[in-house]
Specification:
CATH topology of one domain: S16 Ribosomal Protein, Chain: A
Distance between the termini: 122 Å
Radius of gyration: 36 Å
Largest sheet: 5 strands, mixed
Number of helices: 4
Oligomer: single chain
Number of strands: 5
Strand order of the largest sheet: 4-3-2-1-5
CATH architecture of one domain: 2-Layer Sandwich
Structural class: alpha+beta
CATH class of one domain: Alpha Beta
Shape: elongated
Helix content: 55-70%
Strand content: 15-25%
């Protein structure tokens, strides 16, 4: 029975998330599977991956073939690197302690890179928020100035109207007084 490591689609239209499963290659995409080893949510930034590392490594060593997307996921999580190192130990290229040391170094490098990316995205988001708030403050200031100008014009017009009325009444009162 040829086994595959592949994605099983879940979620609603336009917002899919995936279960990473071990399945018979002849089974339908969302059908029967042997084991669920994780999940993958591409809707978050960066994508969220929850993987049972040891089970994924076990299935890779027993000959399960990953699809292209799951190969990228497994590679990013270090399953393929660990498998490669274990094969080197089997061949006698180096011992298991050296393999663990190399994997730990790779994992810390990968984790720092992911942390750096997350911090950069958070910084960009914060900068975007500040820019939007500044633009909104400028728009509000312009609106306030426009409203103040309209109020000043209205007050000025009212003063002129009152002044015209008083000037119009003054000659009429002079005519009555004579």
């Amino acid at each position: 029975m040829p086994t595959k490591i592949r994605l099983q689609r879940h979620g609603r239209k336009g917002y899919a998330y995936y279960h990473i499963v071990i399945a018979d290659s002849r089974a339908p995409r969302d059908g029967k599977f042997i084991e669920r080893i994780g999940s993958y949510n591409p809707n978050t930034n960066p994508a969220t991956i929850d993987l049972k590392f040891e089970r994924a490594l076990y299935w890779m060593t027993t000959g399960a073939q990953p699809t292209d997307t799951t190969r990228n996921i497994l590679s990013g999580e270090g399953v393929l690197m660990k498998k490669h190192l274990l094969e080197g130990v089997k061949k006698g290229a180096f011992d298991e302690a050296e393999a663990e040391k190399r994997f730990a170094a790779w994992k810390t490098l990968k984790d720092t890179s992911v942390t750096k990316t997350k911090e950069q995205l958070a910084g960009e988001k914060q900068a975007d928020l500040k820019a939007r708030l500044k633009a909104e403050a400028e728009v509000n200031k312009a609106k306030a100035a426009e409203v103040a100008k309209k109020k000043a014009d209205a007050i000025e017009a009212a003063i002129e109207k009152v002044a015209e009325e008083t000037t119009a009444e003054a000659p009429a009162t002079e005519a009555i007084a004579e």
